[in-house]
Specification:
single chain; alpha/beta; 5 helices; 18% strand; globular; disordered N terminus
């Protein structure tokens, strides 16, 4: 019985781990973006940000959004409570989402704040088109 319980826990954790593939190092994010011909989505957050938590819990958890993000982007998260932003980046509120080519150049203006799930892919599309 204990063995079955451990298998169920491991399987459940594996399913959650496969959701979104976040990277926590900027150089690694750019490397994988180049290797996979994707762009980097740098999601700048902080622990006490209710809109950041909304995005993580209500937007990024939607199946179609997860599939879209994993297909087109390398996801890089920076929690400014614990980590420094990469050189040259500044934020004036969280969440702020930057879109970056594999060579480190920005694509368009960052998205400041959150949005409802039904509008999120539409916002992302304009950055994919500029890839």
């Amino acid at each position: 019985m204990r063995k079955l319980f451990l298998v169920l826990i491991f399987t459940t954790l594996s399913l959650f781990a496969q959701d979104l593939k976040w990277i926590y190092d900027f150089e690694d994010a750019k490397y994988f973006a180049k290797k996979e011909n994707k762009i980097v989505m740098m999601f700048v957050t902080m622990q006490s940000c209710p809109v950041c938590n909304y995005m993580k819990e209500k937007v990024f958890t939607k199946k179609d959004i997860k599939e879209y993000l994993n297909k087109h982007m390398i996801l890089y998260e920076v929690d400014i409570d614990m980590d420094d932003l990469p050189s040259g980046y500044e934020v004036y509120g969280t969440p702020t989402t930057f879109f970056i080519k594999s060579d480190g150049t920005n694509i368009g203006k960052p998205i400041i704040g959150g949005t409802k799930p039904e509008f999120y892919i539409k916002k992302l599309q304009k950055y994919i088109d500029q890839k």
